[in-house]
Inverse folding.
């Protein structure tokens, strides 16, 4: 095979890696939007805190003498998921539930305030400089000729993709098969009616926030290990990218968020590979503008019909 | 016989508009009570206040001896009061059977972890829900459509599915807001039979808002007439038909 095909495949692999983390974060946006019709702009900060908690947990656990990298990652992931879920639950309880009956714009402003608050809280508590983490998982597969054209897939990339697939399958089963998932779907279609059938929609909304936060924590931990560095500002860009992914796939649609994340990741990676890395954000957000202009309901979303 | 539902001096104000003004009514067990009145009389607002969709600005709603006004809708539903709306409000993107399963959510245990690990208890409960759903689908003649998306059913079928969805919650009071709207005469007759059957064989009381006077006069035990938000008359179908005020409100004065 010629070198250009290997180069292309390498870019696609890198894109799918980043894209799967976008997809994990995008699910939090899309589920919340699906149920309460609000963009949770503090979601990116939950992702950022997930990374911090994971780094802290990794440091703590390795001080306790655990040195198996997979065990370390597994335990730190659990800590990160639990703490981030608690944050997700609390953010909804404190900043959004009291505003449930006000106009959407007011909840949106509360979300932006929450985002600023959390970012600055982490900046004060953890410092504003980059914190680095030695890479726990090194090496990878090499396909092709090591001295000529080849693709390199690192073990970390494989871990990211496998974890994402596990999360997506788990979430899909939860949404389609479980009683709570059924209630989530009902709420996203008609929350008033769901209430009048005896379902406490506040619980359903809380579950949605917790799931979104847990998935963001998974993304935070994985991406943190992949890049090896975290600072209090990563939530902003990651949040915007994931939001773009959610809109691209069709906001409110869970499969759409998954697809949108992957497409965005690959687009970015191909831009970086064939044009220039500086322009990858330009391309990503141009994509957002184009979708909003020409395909506002996204790839898998339904055309917006005003509810009566 | 005690009253299942007792509404006293119900008032609902939207800013300067007094939509409901001092409406009182009561529903006894196994009784079919209709609320009628010209368009815009405030019938649906009365329903919305009773079912917890709105919080009434004044008056009492007492259900089975317990005050309901101001309670959130999901708690009122759990007390055994469920309703439909004028427009069909099914979960259109879910299947027919799922619509009935989700309505029984409050009957199921609320342990999330059990749901994740699919314990035998969870499966057993799920089967109970499924059986009850299937029973009611059969009852309203929709069993063969169980796995179809609810939004793809014919209009009359969607109406029947809504009633089935109410019934799986095992209510004591069923509130139907214009259930015959948009139905053809045949379907209206089926609906008539279904409502009577629910009352006679399942012991539910029914509150009905309806414009189809044939249906109302045929099945109601008691009728309440509302005009411009205020109570106008109340009595048996025969009394209402003979009431000059009611005739005036419907036909206008000359």
């Amino acid at each position: 095979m010629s070198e250009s095909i290997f180069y292309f495949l390498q870019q696609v692999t890198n894109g799918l890696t980043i894209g799967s983390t976008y997809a994990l974060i995008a699910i939090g946006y899309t589920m919340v939007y699906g149920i309460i019709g609000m963009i949770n702009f503090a979601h990116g900060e939950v992702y950022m805190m997930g990374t911090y908690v994971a780094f802290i947990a990794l440091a703590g656990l390795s001080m306790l003498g655990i040195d198996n990298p997979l065990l370390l990652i597994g335990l730190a992931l659990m800590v990160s998921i639990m703490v981030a879920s608690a944050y997700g639950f609390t953010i909804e309880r404190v900043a959004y539930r009291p505003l449930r009956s006000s106009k959407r714009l007011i909840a949106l402003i509360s979300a932006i305030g929450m985002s600023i608050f959390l970012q600055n809280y982490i900046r004060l508590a953890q410092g504003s400089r980059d914190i680095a983490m030695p890479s726990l998982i090194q090496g990878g597969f090499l396909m092709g000729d090591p001295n000529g054209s080849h693709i390199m897939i690192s073990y970390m990339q494989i871990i990211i993709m496998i974890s994402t697939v596990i999360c997506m399958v788990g979430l899909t089963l939860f949404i389609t098969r479980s009683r709570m998932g059924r209630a989530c779907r009902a709420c996203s279609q008609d929350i008033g009616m769901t209430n009048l059938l005896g379902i406490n929609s506040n619980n359903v909304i809380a579950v949605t926030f917790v799931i979104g936060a847990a998935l963001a924590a998974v993304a935070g931990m994985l991406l943190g290990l992949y890049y090896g560095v975290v600072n209090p500002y990563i939530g902003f860009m990651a949040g915007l990218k994931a939001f773009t992914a959610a809109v691209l796939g069709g906001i409110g649609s869970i499969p759409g968020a998954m697809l949108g994340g992957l497409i965005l990741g690959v687009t970015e990676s191909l831009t970086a590979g064939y044009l220039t890395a500086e322009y990858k954000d330009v391309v990503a957000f141009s994509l957002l503008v184009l979708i909003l202009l020409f395909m506002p309901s996204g790839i898998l979303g339904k055309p917006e019909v005003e509810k009566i | 016989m005690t009253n299942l539902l007792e509404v006293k001096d119900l008032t609902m104000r939207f800013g300067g508009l007094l939509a409901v003004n001092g409406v009182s009514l009561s529903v006894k067990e196994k009784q079919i009570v209709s609320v009628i009145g010209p368009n815009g009389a405030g019938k649906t607002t009365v329903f919305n206040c009773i079912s917890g969709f709105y919080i009434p600005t004044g008056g009492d709603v007492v259900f089975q001896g317990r005050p309901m006004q101001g309670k959130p809708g999901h708690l009122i539903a759990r007390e055994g009061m469920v309703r439909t709306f004028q427009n069909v409000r099914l979960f259109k993107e879910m299947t027919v059977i799922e619509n009935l399963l989700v309505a029984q959510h409050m009957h199921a245990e609320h342990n999330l972890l059990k749901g994740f690990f699919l314990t035998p208890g969870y499966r057993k409960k799920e089967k109970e829900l499924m059986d009850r759903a299937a029973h009611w689908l059969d009852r309203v003649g929709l069993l063969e459509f169980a796995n179809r998306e609810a939004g793809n059913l014919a209009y009359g079928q969607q109406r029947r599915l809504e009633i089935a969805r109410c019934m799986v919650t095992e209510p004591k009071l069923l509130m139907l807001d214009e259930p015959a709207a948009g139905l053809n005469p045949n379907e209206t007759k089926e609906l008539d039979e279904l409502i009577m059957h629910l009352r006679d064989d399942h012991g539910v009381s029914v509150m009905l808002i309806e414009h189809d006077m044939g249906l109302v006069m045929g099945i109601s035990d008691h009728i309440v007439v509302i005009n411009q938000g205020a109570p106008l008359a109340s009595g048996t179908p025969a009394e209402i038909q003979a009431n000059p005020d009611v005739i005036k409100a419907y036909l206008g004065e000359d």
In short: The interface with chain A takes residues 51-53, 72-74, 76-78, 82-83, 85, 87, 89, 91-94, 98, 101-103, 105-106, 108, 110, 112, 115-116, 122, 126, 165, 169 of chain B (CB under 8 Å). The mean pLDDT of chain B is 88. The radius of gyration of chain B is 19 Å.
